[in-house]
Amino acid sequence: AQTVTQSQPEMSVQEAETVTLSCTYDTSESDYYLFWYKQPPSRQMILVIRQEAYKQQNATENRFSVNFQKAAKSFSLKISDSQLGDAAMYFCAVNSGGSNYKLTFGKGTLLTVNP
Amino acid sequence: EPEVTQTPSHQVTQMGQEVILRCVPISNHLYFYWYRQILGQKVEFLVSFYNNEISEKSEIFDDQFSVERPDGSNFTLKIRSTKLEDSAMYFCASSEAVTGRISGNTIYFGEGSWLTVV
């Protein structure tokens, strides 16, 4: 079984500042993949960034980067130079792959960006 | 960029009626999914579908739900007799489902079908 915990129901950040969203997970699989999805008010699920568990190097995608701590089972998302369009619900998710391709999501963190 | 498409975007139905939600997954993907998100809650897995059969289903996916890939491109979710608690956003998703690389394990979502049961 997989579990994902996002301990911050809400976060806020000033435009152009940096914010970090926390996520911890648990899985019994040795090979798995981690994701952050963004859900704006339109409610579409948009992939933000992804990370293979076997890679030590943290993934980056423009202003988005992760801090992946495998031993601690932690996968936080850092948003640099925050923009008004970053305001959304952010979901952390794990996919153990193999014969079990389903994603397990956390409860989400609502990010507000203040101008 | 290829995307998952869903219809309808919003449907209102009376309790007890049958509903069919439709999806066209990304064309080279092999695994298809339905997820559900009740307003204000997290996204929950309903069912996965591979090689023309259900691969896994959650406890939410009871006998009133069924999935089908009728023609090689569409993927449908049928709710046989809707209940008030079925009101939710239903997301279709797909993935390449190739072991060992992240592209094969990345799940792409459609824009969702918002179902309101009255």
CA-atom Rg of chain B in angstroms: 14 Å
The whole-angstrom Rg of chain A is 14 Å
Structural class of chain B: mainly beta
Tally of separate helices of chain B = 1
Question: What best-fitting shape of chain B do the alpha-carbon axes yield?
Answer: globular
Largest sheet of chain B: 7 strands, mixed
Number of helical elements of chain A: 0
Structural class label of chain A: mainly beta
Q: Spell out the helices and strands of chain B N to C.
A: EEEEEEEEEHEE
* Oligomer classification: heterodimer
Order of helices and strands of chain A: EEEEEEEEEEEE
Q: Give the low-confidence spans of chain A.
A: none
Q: Give the % helix of chain A.
A: under 10%
Number of beta strands of chain B: 11
Q: pLDDT under 50 segments of chain B (min length 5)?
A: none
Strand tally of chain A, please? 12
Overall, the morphology of chain A is globular
Mean pLDDT of chain B: 91
Largest interface comes to:
A-B, 26 and 30 residues
Biggest sheet features of chain A: 6 strands, mixed
In short:
The complex is a heterodimer of chains A (115) and B (118). By secondary structure, chain A is an all-beta fold.
Care to describe what's here?
The complex is a heterodimer of chains A (115) and B (118). By secondary structure, chain A is an all-beta fold. Chain A has strands spanning 3-5, 10-14, 19-21, 24-26, 33-39, 46-52, 60-61, 64-69, 74-79, 88-97, 100-105, 109-114. In chain A, strands 2, 5, 6, 10, 11 and 12 form a six-stranded mixed beta sheet that branches. In chain A, strands 3-9-8-7 form a four-stranded antiparallel beta sheet, with no helix packed on it. Chain A has a two-stranded antiparallel sheet with strand order 1-4. Chain B is mainly beta. In chain B, 3% of the residues lie in helices and 47% in strands. Chain B has one helix and eleven strands. In chain B, the strands form two sheets. In chain B, strands 2, 4, 5, 6, 9, 10 and 11 form a seven-stranded mixed beta sheet that branches. In chain B, a hairpin with a 6-residue loop joins strand 7 and strand 8 (75-79). The radius of gyration of chain B is 14 Å and the shape is globular.
